[in-house]
Structure formats: structure tokens, C-alpha cells
């Protein structure tokens, strides 16, 4: 029986996972001769202890996780027509491959696993906000290359206002406004005038770079004590929950920005698929002509959603200043907006998919830092390449169909078909 294109892609994915599992089994489990143990730590603070640490022979751990990965791939081969099974298999294979690699790379070392995961979440915060902004905008049919500029504007505004007022509250309040101002420019030129959205996004990024660099040199450096020395947010422990083993310090001992991120993820996931606004948003992003025919003002909804996206990204930008170091530095977002776009594509323009991809990026970023500190045979630049390679694989369709909303990037004029 001839398989559909989707099933062929799914089967190809299983083959790739099986091949990676075999490579991990051989290079991480069978070939190394070292019998040094690897120690995984599971406690950070005063949370309840389920297990303090796990000491295991690094070779045995790599071999065991490699076998689990290979077994899961074999199961996936015989069940590749079941979508839910394949997703579960992919999760098991991904986790096992990562653990096999870490066990090999950290032989004879100590890995603070809970701290590693906590750091990964923190590094993913601006990526998640940025990818959520991308979901809102691109589901509406507007390509948002300007996420980088919106993050940077939010970081700058939050840092400066918090410094002037000595209040993180005002910094958090003004950050979404700054992001919204940038997205309003995007909406005016992209929605109202039909300017090429890719070029426009890059222009806006350059504009924000230029303005923030100019003000940084003229105000923030000469008058640093007044303009660029703001307070930072303190972690808020959620009663009882923060004491949960492993998950407690990772999820429930965070700043207000992280808790706002949790709310944004659940709220957007619900609103996009369970409300009238979400139905209309998806309609104008997929087929604006049909949406217009039932009375939806396509361009007005797009305009509003792009502004909302800017507010979300601006709030994420506040993490760089009031959520972390307090002060603003030149181009401190360091391309995180573009990484958020990659997470959006990797996540197939869905909120939870984008969150998963952003967490992968954050984990890879933190893992290379941890491995660099403890000393491993893997050069840090190689580790930094991992999430980008994963994104390339996703975009090429090897992990399934990756398709943007049908009208994404296409200006809409009433009376014209899309």
C-alpha cells in the first residue's frame, strides 16, 4: 500500500532517530574505555529531597540510555502510523540521546542537573516571550522579523525607567509599551501600506539598534548612576510548591516575569484555539478573503494583533534588565529575537511547539556553559551549534511538515483574492 507524504516523512524521522541512537550507542557507550563515574545532583536549596545525587559509571549510563533510545526507535518503526505514539517515542529518544551524551561528556565530573534545568528555563524566558509574539503576529498573517527590535526596546525602556524611578514595577510597566511602539510601526507600514514585511522587520531592528546605541553612549554611559543602575526582581517562592523535589526550584522559585510567562503561555494557547478571537485570528492568517466575506475586518484585526505581539515581546525584553542584571548594555539581546523566530518555525507556529523549541535552545545554551565550566572534551562552539542544526532539520521537513499560515506575509486589500 502506498504511503502518504506525511507517513513517509514520519517513517524517515524514525530512521533518523534510529541512526542517531546507533551512533550514540557506539560512540558514547561502546568505544569509550573510561570507567569514571558521573554524578548527577538533584538538590539546590532547601527543597524536599527525593534523591540527593545519583552516581553511576559514565560508560554504563551512556550505554543504557543509548539502548533505551534504540529500543524506542524500533518501537516507533512498527508504530509509525500512530501520531501520539510517535510523539511519545520522539520524546523518549530525545531525552535518552541527551542523557547518553551528557554521561559521556561529564565522565568523572559532577552535573548539577536541577541547576542545569533551572538555568535552561531562565535562558529560554526571552525566547518564549519572543516566540509567543511571533505566534500572535504570524497566525494573523504578518511576518514579525522585528521581534529582536521589540525585545531590545523593552529591555532598554525597562532598564532606564527602573533606574530613574528606582522601581522594578515601573520598569515592567513600560517595557510592553516600548515593544508596542515598535510593533505599531510594523503594523502601520505592513498592514496599512503593504510594505514588504521581511525588509521592514530588518529595518525596524536596525532602527532600534541605532536609537538604543545612541542613547546608551550619550546618556547611559556618562550618567550611569542615574540612568543605568536599576534594581532587579527578587525570586518569589510559591508556598509549598517550591519545596517539591526537582520541579520546585525550577518552576516555583522564580521572578514575577517567569510567572507572567507561564500565564502568557496558557492564556495564548487557550485564546488561540478556544475563543472567537482565536478563530478569527487563524482565519485572517489562513484565508483573509473568506474571513472578510463573513464580516471580519481583516486589517484591523491584524493591526491589533501585531500591537499585542509587540507588547508580549517588550515584556520579554524586560527580562534582560530588571529580570537579570538591572543595567542596559549595547545590543544586549544578542540576536535572541532571531532565535525566537527559529523556535517559532521549529514549533510549527503553535504556542506549545514554540515553547518546547525555546526550551531546547535554552537547554543547549546552558549545557554548553556548564560543560565548559566543568571541563569536557567538547568545544563550546560545537555545543552552541546544536539548536541551530535541530532547527535546520525541522525546517527541511525531516521531523514532519512545517508550514506557515497560508497568508503569512501577504498584505490584504479588500476585493483582491489571497
What are the defining features of this structure?
mainly alpha; 2 domains; three-stranded mixed beta sheet; 418 residues; globular
How would you characterize the overall build of this protein?
The protein is mainly α. The chain folds into 2 domains: 5-108, no CATH class; 116-395, Orthogonal Bundle (ABC transporter involved in vitamin B12 uptake, BtuC), CATH 1.10.3470. The protein contains 16 helices and 5 strands. A 3-stranded mixed beta sheet has the order 2-1-3. Strands 4-5 form a two-stranded antiparallel ribbon. Helix 5 (147-165) packs parallel to helix 7. The mean pLDDT is 90.
C-alpha geometry: globular
Radius of gyration: 23 Å
Q: What gap, in angstroms, lies between the N and C termini?
A: 36 Å
Order of helices and strands: HEEHHEHHHHHEHEHHHHHHH
CATH architecture heading of the largest domain: Orthogonal Bundle
Short characterization:
The protein has 418 residues and is mainly alpha-helical. Helix content is 69%, strand content 4%. The chain folds into two domains: 5-108, no CATH class; 116-395, ABC transporter involved in vitamin B12 uptake, BtuC (Orthogonal Bundle), CATH 1.10.3470.
Give the helix/strand layout.
Elements: H1 5-30, E1 37-41, E2 53-57, H2 58-78, H3 83-105, E3 110-112, H4 113-139, H5 147-165, H6 168-192, H7 197-220, H8 224-227, E4 236-237, H9 247-251, E5 253-254, H10 256-274, H11 276-286, H12 288-293, H13 298-325, H14 336-346, H15 351-374, H16 380-395
Parallel strand pairs: 1-3
Antiparallel strand pairs: 1-2, 4-5
Helix pairs in contact: 1-2, 1-3, 2-3, 4-10, 4-13, 4-14, 4-15, 5-6, 5-7, 5-13, 5-14, 6-7, 6-13, 10-11, 14-15, 14-16, 15-16
Amino acid at each position: 500500500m502506498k504511503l502518504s507524504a506525511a507517513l513517509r516523512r514520519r517513517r524517515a524521522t524514525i530512521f533518523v532517530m534510529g541512526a542517531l541512537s546507533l551512533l550514540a550507542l557506539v560512540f558514547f557507550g561502546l568505544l569509550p574505555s573510561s570507567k569514571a563515574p558521573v554524578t548527577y545532583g538533584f538538590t539546590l536549596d532547601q527543597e524536599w529531597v527525593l534523591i540527593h545525587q545519583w552516581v553511576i559509571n559514565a560508560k554504563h549510563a551512556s550505554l543504557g540510555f543509548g539502548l533505551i533510545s534504540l529500543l524506542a526507535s524500533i518501537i516507533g518503526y512498527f508504530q509509525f502510523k500512530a501520531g501520539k505514539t510517535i510523539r511519545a517515542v520522539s520524546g523518549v529518544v530525545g531525552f535518552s540521546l541527551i542523557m547518553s551524551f551528557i554521561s559521556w561528556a561529564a565522565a568523572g565530573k559532577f552535573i548539577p542537573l536541577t541547576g542545569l534545568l533551572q538555568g535552561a528555563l531562565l535562558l529560554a524566558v526571552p525566547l518564549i516571550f519572543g516566540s509567543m509574539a511571533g505566534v500572535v503576529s504570524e497566525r494573523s498573517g504578518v511576518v514579525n522579523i522585528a521581534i529582536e527590535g521589540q525585545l531590545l526596546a523593552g529591555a532598554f525602556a525597562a532598564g532606564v525607567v527602573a533606574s530613574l524611578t528606582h522601581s522594578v514595577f515601573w520598569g515592567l510597566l513600560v517595557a510592553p509599551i516600548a515593544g508596542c511602539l515598535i510593533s505599531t510601526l510594523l503594523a502601520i507600514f505592513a498592514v496599512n501600506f503593504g510594505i514588504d514585511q521581511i525588509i521592514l522587520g530588518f529595518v525596524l531592528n536596525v532602527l532600534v539598534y541605532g536609537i538604543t546605541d545612541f542613547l546608551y553612549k550619550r546618556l547611559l554611559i556618562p550618567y550611569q548612576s542615574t540612568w543605568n543602575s536599576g534594581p532587579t526582581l527578587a525570586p518569589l517562592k510559591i508556598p509549598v510548591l517550591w519545596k517539591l523535589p526537582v520541579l520546585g526550584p525550577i518552576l516555583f522559585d522564580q521572578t514575577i516575569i517567569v510567572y507572567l510567562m507561564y500565564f502568557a503561555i496558557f492564556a495564548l494557547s487557550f485564546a488561540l484555539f478556544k475563543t472567537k478571537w482565536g478563530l478569527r485570528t487563524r482565519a485572517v492568517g489562513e484565508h483573509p478573503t473568506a474571513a472578510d466575506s463573513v464580516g471580519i475586518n481583516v486589517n484591523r484585526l491584524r493591526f491589533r494583533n501585531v500591537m499585542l505581539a509587540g507588547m508580549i515581546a517588550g515584556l520579554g525584553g524586560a527580562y534582560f534588565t530588571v529580570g537579570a542584571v538591572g543595567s542596559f548594555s549595547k545590543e544586549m539581546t544578542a540576536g535572541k529575537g532571531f532565535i525566537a523566530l527559529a523556535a517559532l518555525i521549529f514549533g510549527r507556529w503553535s504556542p506549545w511547539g514554540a515553547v518546547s523549541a525555546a526550551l531546547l535552545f535554552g537547554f543547549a545554551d546552558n549545557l554548553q556553559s556548564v560543560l565548559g565550566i566543568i571541563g569536557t572534551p567538547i568545544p563550546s562552539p560545537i555545543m552552541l551549534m546544536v539548536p541551530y542544526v535541530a532547527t535546520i532539520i525541522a525546517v527541511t521537513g525531516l521531523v514532519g511538515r512545517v508550514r506557515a499560515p497560508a497568508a503569512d506575509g501577504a498584505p490584504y486589500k479588500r476585493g483582491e483574492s489571497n
